[in-house]
Design goal:
The complex is a heterodimer of chains A (about 325) and B (about 170). Chain A is about 30% helix and about 20% strand. Chain A has about 325 residues and is an alpha+beta fold. In chain A, the strands form 3 sheets. In chain A, strands 4-5-8-6-7 form a 5-stranded antiparallel beta sheet. Chain A is globular, with a radius of gyration of 19 Å. The model of chain A has no long low-confidence stretch (mean pLDDT about 95). Chain B has a 5-stranded mixed beta sheet. The chains are: A alpha+beta (about 325), B alpha+beta (about 170). Chains A and B meet through helix 2, helix 3, helix 5 and helix 6 of A and strand 4, helix 4 and helix 5 of B.
C-alpha cells in the first residue's frame, strides 16, 4: 500500500474539513476500499474514517425511513423497521456478500463501491478507462460474463456490483449529501453518472462532499415486493442479473410499480420503460413479458454475456408473476 | 491507543497500513487466525470485533482501536476445547484445518445472530422474531467461509449439533 495518514472524524464538520484536502478519501467499513488500496487501484494520501458518524436508522415525519450513511449493512437488514416496512431492502442486502462483510460494510460505502470488473482491479496487467481514463479497455474482447448489457459506453462496460443499491433505486431513495458548499438531497437515479467517455467519474459527489444518509419515502408497492438474485453459485457471489420489484394492484389492474435491475448496467438500473409498459394494465403473463421486452429492447450484449438479455427478461417476468399471485 | 485482543490490551500500530490480520499474526504471534486470499473472498481470517464476525484482512488495525477482538485463541483455551471445536472434531468438520479457525469464529458469532432473530437470505418470514434453524439456514449464513477440502457437510453438522445442545 502507498503510505497514507489516518484520522477518525469526530463530527460531520470535521469530516468535511478533512476530506476537502487533495488525496483525501472517506473510509467506511473498508471492505472495498482497503482491498483496492492493497491492489494499488486506490492510492489515497489521507483516509478519513467516518464509520462512527451517522449510524442511525429511524422513522421520518413523512412515514418513511432515514438510514445513516455509517449504518452497517447487516444492521440495516436486521432492523425491525426495515424488515417490516421495506422487506425488499432487507432481502437485497442479505443477498449480497457474506455475513462478515455485511457486518463491516456501511450504507455510504455500499453506494460508493467500485465495480468488480477484473480488468479494473488488475493494475499490472490490464488497461482500464475507469482506472486511467483514455488508455483503453481490456474487458472488451476479454471475459465479459459479468459485464453490462444496458447503459454501457464505448469506454466502459463494467457493472455496478451492489445489491442494496438496486433495492434503493426501486424504492426511490433520496441521497442526503453534506458539503462545504452547502447540503443537498438528490434522488438515487441522479446520483450515478452514465459512463460515457469518463467512466472514472461514477457519481455526482464532489471532493469535499459526504453522504450522510439515505432516505426512503413511503410507498404503495411495498406489500407486494421482492428481490431476486441470479448468480453462478447460491450464495456469496455477485449477481448475473437481479430484480428488485414492487407492485400495487387495485381492482385487478397495476396501479403502480417500481422495478430496478442489478448486474446488467454500470449503475443500478431503474427500469422506467418496463414500469411505463405496466401501469394501468392487467397483471398477466403476457403484459409482464411485454414489459420485460420493452426494457431490454436497447440491450447491447457482448460476446460473453448475450445470455443476460434473456435471463433478465425471464427473471423480471417471473418476479412480476410471483408478486401478482394470490398468495401475496 | 490500544486494542483489546482476547482480553489483553495491545498497543495500536502507528502505521495505518497494518491490517488487523497482520497485527494478530506477525506482531502478536496469534497465528490461529489464517491468511487465505487476503482480499475478502474466503473467510479464513474471520475474527470477532466487539462480538461481531468480521474479516481481519480487510480491517485496518487502526479501525479496531478502542475495540475488543476475539480470535480462535480466545475462544478455545487452556481450560479445553470450545464446544464448537469439539463438535468440529466429532463431525469431521475439517480435513487440512486451515479454514477451521475462521469457520469456528464465524459460527460462534452466527449462533448469536440467530439467537437475536436476525434473518438471512433464505429465511422465509422476515417478520418472524425467531429463526427456525435448518441446514439451509446454516449453509447460507456460513457461505462466507470457504473450505477447499469440502468439509462443509461436517461443518454444518457440527454447528447444528452445538445449537441443538444449547437449546436442550
Amino acid at each position: 500500500m502507498t503510505p497514507f495518514d489516518y484520522s477518525r472524524a469526530a463530527s460531520a464538520a470535521d469530516a468535511l474539513s478533512l476530506s476537502g484536502r487533495s488525496g483525501a478519501m472517506l473510509l467506511g467499513g473498508g471492505t472495498n476500499l482497503v482491498d483496492l488500496m492493497r491492489k494499488g487501484v486506490e492510492r489515497p494520501m489521507h483516509l478519513i474514517d467516518v464509520s462512527g458518524l451517522f449510524t442511525q436508522i429511524e422513522e421520518t415525519p413523512e412515514g418513511g425511513l432515514l438510514i445513516g450513511a455509517a449504518a452497517r449493512n447487516g444492521a440495516v437488514a436486521a432492523h425491525p423497521l426495515v424488515r417490516a416496512r421495506y422487506p425488499m431492502l432487507s432481502r437485497a442486502i442479505l443477498a449480497g456478500a457474506s455475513a462478515q462483510i455485511r457486518n463491516m460494510a456501511t450504507v455510504g460505502g455500499n453506494l460508493m463501491q467500485r465495480t468488480r470488473c477484473a480488468y479494473f482491479a488488475d493494475v499490472a496487467g490490464s488497461r482500464c478507462n475507469k482506472r486511467d481514463p483514455g488508455v483503453g479497455c481490456d474487458a472488451r474482447g476479454g471475459f465479459t460474463r459479468y459485464h453490462a448489457i444496458l447503459g454501457a459506453s464505448e469506454a466502459c462496460v463494467a457493472t455496478h456490483p451492489s445489491d442494496m443499491c438496486v433495492a434503493l433505486t426501486a424504492l426511490d431513495a433520496q441521497v442526503r449529501i453534506l458539503g462545504v458548499e452547502g447540503d443537498r438531497t438528490i434522488p438515487i437515479v441522479q446520483f450515478y453518472r452514465a459512463p460515457d467517455d469518463r467512466p472514472d467519474l461514477e457519481t455526482v459527489l464532489a471532493q469535499g462532499e459526504a453522504i450522510v444518509a439515505v432516505e426512503l419515502p413511503p410507498s404503495s408497492v411495498l406489500n407486494r415486493s421482492a428481490y431476486r438474485k441470479v448468480r453462478d453459485r447460491a450464495s456469496y457471489a455477485f449477481a448475473l442479473v437481479s430484480v428488485a420489484a414492487g407492485l400495487d394492484l387495485r381492482n385487478s389492474a397495476i396501479e403502480d410499480v417500481r422495478i430496478a435491475l442489478g448486474g446488467v448496467a454500470p449503475r443500478p438500473w431503474r427500469a422506467f420503460k418496463a414500469e411505463a409498459a405496466l401501469r394501468g394494465q392487467a397483471p398477466t403473463a403476457k403484459v409482464f413479458e411485454a414489459a420485460a421486452e420493452a426494457e431490454l429492447a436497447d440491450a447491447a450484449p457482448l460476446p460473453g454475456n448475450a445470455f443476460k438479455v434473456g435471463l433478465a427478461k425471464r427473471t423480471l417476468a417471473a418476479v412480476l408473476a410471483e408478486l401478482s399471485g394470490d398468495g401475496r | 491507543m490500544a486494542i483489546e485482543i482476547n482480553g489483553r490490551k495491545v498497543e495500536t500500530p502507528h502505521d495505518p497500513r497494518v491490517s488487523l490480520l497482520d497485527l494478530l499474526r506477525e506482531r502478536e504471534g496469534l497465528s490461529g487466525t489464517k491468511v487465505g486470499c487476503n482480499q475478502g473472498a474466503c473467510g479464513a481470517c474471520t475474527v470477532q470485533l466487539d462480538g461481531e464476525r468480521v474479516l481481519s484482512c480487510l480491517t485496518l488495525a487502526v479501525q479496531a482501536d478502542g475495540r475488543s477482538v476475539t480470535t480462535i485463541e480466545g475462544l478455545g483455551g487452556d481450560a479445553g476445547l470450545h464446544p464448537l471445536q469439539a463438535a468440529f472434531v466429532e463431525h469431521d468438520g475439517f480435513q487440512c484445518g486451515y479454514c477451521t479457525p475462521g469457520q469456528i469464529c464465524a459460527a460462534e458469532a452466527m449462533l448469536r445472530e440467530i439467537a437475536s432473530g436476525a434473518p438471512s437470505y433464505v429465511t422465509a418470514d422476515l417478520s418472524a422474531e425467531r429463526v427456525a434453524l435448518s441446514r439451509d439456514e446454516v449453509r447460507e449464513r456460513m457461505s462466507g467461509n470457504l473450505c477447499r477440502c469440502g468439509a462443509h457437510n461436517g461443518i454444518v453438522d457440527a454447528i447444528l449439533d452445538v445449537a441443538a445442545r444449547r437449546a436442550a
